Predict the structure.
Amino acid sequence: MLTILSITNLSLPLEDPVLKFLVVLIIILFAPILLNKIKVPHLLGLIIAGAIIGPNGFNVLARDASIVVTGTTGLLYIMFLAGLEIDLAEFKKNKWKSIGFGFYTFAIPFVLGILSSHYLFNFPWITSFVFASIFSSHTLISYPIVSKLGISKSLPVNIAVGGTMITDILALLVLAVCVGVVQGEVNAAFWTKISVSMLVFSVVVLAGFPILGRWFFKKVNDNISQYIFVLVMIYLAAVLAELAGVEAIIGAFFAGLALNRLIPHTSALMNRVEFVGNAIFIPFFLISVGMIIDFSVFFKDLKTIEIALLMTVIGIFSKYFAAVATQKTFRLTKEQGGVIFGLSAAHAAATLAIVMVGYSIIIGETPTGEPIRLLDESVLNGSILLILVSCTVSSFVTQKNANKLVESENENTISDINPDEEKILLAVNQLSIIEPMMNLALLFKSRNNKEDLFALNIINEEKNESSKKNAEKLLHAAQTIGASADVKVTPLTRYDADVINGVSNEIKVNEITDLLIGVDVEKGFSPSFVYNLYSGYLRNRSSNVLVYHSAQPVSTIQKYIVILPHKAHLESGFFHSLLKVWNIARNSGSKVEFYGTEDTISIIENIRNKVNIDASTVIFSNWAELRSVFDKMKENDALILFMATREMVSYLPEMQRVPDYLNENFRNRNYLLIFPNRLGEDEYTKHTRDIGNAADFVAIGKIVGRIFK
């Protein structure tokens, strides 16, 4: 009865937690639906909704501790996702572009801010420096837009994210120094403390978190526990950043970088991280930003209006000039420059932090005894208009240019073959290997392939009820893992007295391009498995056959050693198989080291120049010396071996000893054997002859068709 009364006796702002959460959820639900119809970014709608229902609007909800805590999590989430989704290989390749943009987007607003505040409003130099740092910082508030459109790994996003960290750190460092000057603390001890604390923080997060994360993911398989672990890492890094003297958002971004290689971009865990963030935490943050907005402050006095307009003009146009300078310097397209401007235009979190710190610092008193603040109330009020306008501009500009970028870029890259040409079949027969097989398949499949995954179990006896139930259990497990990553897995049950014939028939019926078989961790290559492989599965000439042994989670692998036999590139299925290796590297962020003969390695180098991954190559031709390569492998390295059957041009006699060697030495390691598909005999001979006569990568690309574009 008391609960009913508390809900029926409504007063504003709402205090009942159920009603408060319901109101927020309704806004999160309907803002995107309504605004998409009028082409307005839903991010902007959430901010406006926050202003309407907030304490400065209709006062439906108070910006209390619950809103602040959840909103803060949303902000940390944005920065964490930016670090988590960034393509580290591409980021490393374009680090100078990020540094260049970071310099432009810090220096241009900073100089304009100092000059305007000192010479237009006669602010003291120390105030002018703090005032200018407001414009140098920015918040990646429109990052969810590029993430949703699937271009978070693109060049302009990599540049913008890297530049954001540089300019935010510099802006916050300026604030720390200015506060130290006011308080008389800037001395040798100050610089030593801030340098050492930043160094320790960086080492702990970037070096310590990956070790801790790899250990945890090896020991704990529970999905919920893994997600909670990610949240703990975000907040722990944020706390460590604050202890080091920088903002929590820097810590969240560093946590994303640290876990980047441990959470594959196509994994179920990544899907959970993105889903919860985009559904709950990030919308809460945007609504909490809107709650700060108070339109009435703009009409208090003329100085507030002037400063608000000045802050808005400098904040928007200085970021535009920085983006244009970056575009011209590095010869980017107009759309790429637009995406950089859109991502860097918004002023929210760091801006508020700087303004609130500056407002809280008292640097003197007026003759009447009133405190003189480092940043006065007019700047505090002016920041509200800056936040509103900059977030609006950021949302529209990012949406417009990101859509153009998606349209202009060729989506058929090396890792994105036509999904109609890729159909993957997992032959499953025991529960323990389903999750490792599914996780690998999610890594090597095409990004666009959301439906053409099949899981097959062969039932020997049609009337065996226990076999039927076991098959349902196995296939349901595969479907569940696929669904958690937004991938449809089609279950296949076939009654057949011969398992090999049953698998072969399903390959023909469903036009399978890739057959994935799991090796039992305990048994390894048993005589019966070897017989079924060479006398059965490998007779399917039309499909690649992948044999997988998983001793540890695929997300914990640091480097893949890929060994290619002589003439491997002449096989008809080589390029399709190579795509799988390339996707594993790109989606997991793991390093790859290719070993092969000079002609094959030259092709690998040509491909690497077109699509960047963290890869190196080694000229290697003597398979009798494979042991020397294996001996170099470290604990978290895995092996990928390109194999061949006797009738294939890349076949070597040493391949016969591979199963026994793996049984003896790789029981506790991950390995993947790839047998590329073979065409009919006449087609196969012509194919190898044509590619063997191809003078360069361009000619080879014409032969393999749409795989390389």
